[in-house]
């Protein structure tokens, strides 16, 4: 069917007439706020109305842009595109009144726009308040169009110059509600599309086979939309998988690659010494006496089954599930924080061949502070080899050089830019199990080098960030030295494809994966430009004689905000001179990279955050 286009707030109908003649295949409905008698009295407007009607367009008068659905039957409301050029409340209305007008217009638009439709809003230079404006007004003195649109679930997907001179016969009028022209030099056309909704995460239970037992556990709330995404499956076209495949292909030209049939457990068992470790997601398991027929059909006996549930149990401040009733398994388990936990198991297998390069790959989970390079879940690939003692240095150098060449080649092919990849000496030893575990000596892995990339592709300034590590470990038997390289595939995909925000890799918006069809790597073009940010402060007294757990503080922020908190900064610390009580003040910045986030939603999240830190960390709010 022909696209249906709605034009709002036409003054003399010159824009509508020009557009109608340029796109004759579309069906146009042109509207204005004024009555027909008043508009028809103006010669230019009368001529353009005749042009429109002669071209088959529909012309409506006295149309209020804040009540659009009232003028169309339900079957006629799905417009492909809505245009509103230079909206204004009239006369000397200030920025606040015009923001209110836009807010009501966008809410009205949502009721008449097709699911994949666009809303085009042209504003004079500086009015929008985005970085595209030259010069850019101060935020409080602009119309804040992106934040206003977010309230109606719209995101800014493109900004283009409004070239009035290229529109044949167009004449802009309406200066202070009069039939007078105004300057549109530097004007911009803002193009909005619908946002996917903010996720209201439903609790998810994982059913799995653990040795001879069938067990289940509730997935930590902040991971329910990430734990079962299958980015690395054969059918996936996600750039994370493509980067892994292309890097493996580069390594296969230098090393014999061994295809390893090794199922990596999602959970790892640990023995606590000195309390729960705050950097892992602890899990409490519940035994299942019998698996249902449906669960067996879905492969419970051979793998993992995820199911949604209609209830929610609470999580304590260490991420352990507080099970309300029923038996629990006494052993403590946590979601795997690294695949390095399984290197020894792989090497000790009879099927592993020394001199070859084995590959382990999968998602890993870690609690971490909020920052642009700290990922609570990411896909790790570990390349593992075993060589005779004394040969490890040469093997490591060859492995590092090949990885560096592969990363450089991928980045250069996609972006055409140079990349500086360097090795940095590691500071010491890293246990493959968290520090609070009783790790045996044979499980200690020596991280010798960090693989660091220097680039300004993911930010406004040049910086170094680590994408992987290289090191050795002693095999339990046969005297071989294990050599490994662990890489963060998510960071590499971001680097290669120019993805500035790690959260974009996990978006449910189809406009992300549609840019990587066929598994082809290319520079990513964001479909959500200049997302608004909202700043909120929180101050509180820390409980006396207790260590404040900042990682848990950040984890609570991630959970209650659906990962929309992008920054947490400590802006003040105070200790009372008499009571010695300590007060902290943090500043949280809320911003979504792929979804509309309104001012009201951010404020509601902040209120929930305040309640949760009070409950979980026992702080006293100020």
TrEMBL record:
Answer whether the UniProt record assigns the keyword Zinc-finger to this protein: no
Listed InterPro entries: aa-tRNA-synth_II/BPL/LPL, BMT5-like, Fdx_antiC-bd, Fdx_antiC-bd_sf
Q: Where is the FDX-ACB domain?
A: 529-622
A Pfam family the protein falls into? FDX-ACB
Q: Where in the cell is it found?
A: Mitochondrion matrix
Broad enzyme group: ligase
Record GO biological process: rRNA base methylation; translation
Query: Looking at the UniProt record for this protein, which Gene Ontology cellular component terms does it annotate, in alphabetical order?
Result: mitochondrial matrix
Keywords annotated in UniProt:
Aminoacyl-tRNA synthetase, ATP-binding, Ligase, Mitochondrion, Nucleotide-binding, Protein biosynthesis, Transit peptide
Task: List GO molecular-function terms, semicolon-separated.
Answer: ATP binding; phenylalanine-tRNA ligase activity; rRNA (uridine-N3-)-methyltransferase activity
Coarsely, its chief localization is mitochondrion
EC number per UniProt:
6.1.1.20
Can you state which reaction this protein catalyses?
A: tRNA(Phe) + L-phenylalanine + ATP = L-phenylalanyl-tRNA(Phe) + AMP + diphosphate + H(+)
Annotated family: Belongs to the class-II aminoacyl-tRNA synthetase family.
- Report the protein name in the record: phenylalanine--tRNA ligase
């Amino acid at each position: 069917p022909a696209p249906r286009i709605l034009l709002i707030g036409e003054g003399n109908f010159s824009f509508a007439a020009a557009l109608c003649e340029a796109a004759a295949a579309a069906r146009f409905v042109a509207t204005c706020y004024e009555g027909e008698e008043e508009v028809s009295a103006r010669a230019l407007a009368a001529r353009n109305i005749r042009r429109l009607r002669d071209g088959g367009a529909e012309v409506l008068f006295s149309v209020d842009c804040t009540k659009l659905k009232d003028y169309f039957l339900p079957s006629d409301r799905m417009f492909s595109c809505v245009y509103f050029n230079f909206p204004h409340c009239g006369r000397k209305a200030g920025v606040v009144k015009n923001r209110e007008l836009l807010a009501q217009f966008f809410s009205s638009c949502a009721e008449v726009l097709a699911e994949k439709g666009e809303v085009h809003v042209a504003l004079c230079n500086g009015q929008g308040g985005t970085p595209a404006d030259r010069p850019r007004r101060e935020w409080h003195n602009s119309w804040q169009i992106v934040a206003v649109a977010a309230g109606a679930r719209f995101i800014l997907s493109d900004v283009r110059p409004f070239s009035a001179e290229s529109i044949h016969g167009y004449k802009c009028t309406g200066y202070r509600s009069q039939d007078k022209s105004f300057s549109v030099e530097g004007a911009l056309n803002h193009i909005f599309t619908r946002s996917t909704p903010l996720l209201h995460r439903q609790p998810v239970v994982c059913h799995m086979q653990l040795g001879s037992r069938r067990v289940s556990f509730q997935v930590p709330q902040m991971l329910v939309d990430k734990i079962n995404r299958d980015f690395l499956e054969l059918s996936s076209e996600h750039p994370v998988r493509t980067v892994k495949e292309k890097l493996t292909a580069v390594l296969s030209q230098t090393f014999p690659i061994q295809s390893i049939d090794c199922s990596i457990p999602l959970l790892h068992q640990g023995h606590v010494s000195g309390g729960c470790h705050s950097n892992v997601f602890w899990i409490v398991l519940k035994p299942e006496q019998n698996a249902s027929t449906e669960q067996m059909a879905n492969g419970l006996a051979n793998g993992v089954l995820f199911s949604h549930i209609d209830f929610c149990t609470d999580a304590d401040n260490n991420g352990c599930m507080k099970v309300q009733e029923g038996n629990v398994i006494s052993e403590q388990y946590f979601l795997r924080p690294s695949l390095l936990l399984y290197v020894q198991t792989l090497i000790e297998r009879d099927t592993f061949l020394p001199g070859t390069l084995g590959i382990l790959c999968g998602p890993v989970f870690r609690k971490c502070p909020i920052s642009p390079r700290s990922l609570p879940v990411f896909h790790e690939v570990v390349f593992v080899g075993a060589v005779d003692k004394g040969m490890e240095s040469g093997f490591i150098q060859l492995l590092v050089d090949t990885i560096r060449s592969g990363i450089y080649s991928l980045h250069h092919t996609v972006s055409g830019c140079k990349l500086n990849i360097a090795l940095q000496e590691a500071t010491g030893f890293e246990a493959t199990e968290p520090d609070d575990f009783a790790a045996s000596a044979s499980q200690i892995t020596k991280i010798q080098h960090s693989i660091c990339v220097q680039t300004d592709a993911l930010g406004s300034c040049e910086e170094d960030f680590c994408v992987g590590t290289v090191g050795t470990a002693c095999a339990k038997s046969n005297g071989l030295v294990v050599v490994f390289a662990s890489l963060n595939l998510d960071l590499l995909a971001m680097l290669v494809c120019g993805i500035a925000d790690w959260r974009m890799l996990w978006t449910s918006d189809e406009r992300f994966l549609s840019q990587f069809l066929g598994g082809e790597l290319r520079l990513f073009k964001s479909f959500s430009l200049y997302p608004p940010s909202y700043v909120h402060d929180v101050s509180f007294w820390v409980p006396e004689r207790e260590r404040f757990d900042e990682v848990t503080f950040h984890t609570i922020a991630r959970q209650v905000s659906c990962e929309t908190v992008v920054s947490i900064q400590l802006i003040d610390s105070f200790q009372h001179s008499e009571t010695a009580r300590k007060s902290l003040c943090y500043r949280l910045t809320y911003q979504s990279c792929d979804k509309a986030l309104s001012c009201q939603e951010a404020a509601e999240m902040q209120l929930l955050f305040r309640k949760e830190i009070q409950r979980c960390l026992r702080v006293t709010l100020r």
